[in-house]
Design goal:
The chain is of the alpha+beta class. Helix content is 24%, strand content 41%. Strands 1, 2, 3, 4 and 5 form a five-stranded antiparallel sheet that branches. The relative contact order is 0.21.
């Protein structure tokens, strides 16, 4: 089994179909964060789908959510138990 572990997102930010998930990962003593960006959309009768492709109008929304994710990560890393 790998020393690297991953889990469910610790935070999910959503706005107008754009979703940014924040993951906290641990490897040994180190803790680090990563994000995943998805576009959620409805495809007729096939239901909800996701893609990693963003359209022109999704870009400012993604930029906003990425900024908020960055702030969340900085605050999380500044918590006393993360030193």
């Amino acid at each position: 089994m790998s020393e690297f572990t991953s889990n469910k997102p610790i935070q999910v930010l959503r706005r107008r179909g754009v979703k940014v998930s924040i993951f906290e990962n641990r490897s040994g003593e180190a803790t680090f964060h990563k994000i995943a960006i998805q576009k959620v959309y409805r495809d007729g009768q096939q239901g909800w789908k996701t893609t990693n492709s963003l359209g022109r109008d999704d870009l400012p929304i993604a930029q906003l959510l990425i900024g908020r994710a960055w702030e969340f990560i900085l605050e999380k890393e500044a918590e006393p138990n993360n030193e």
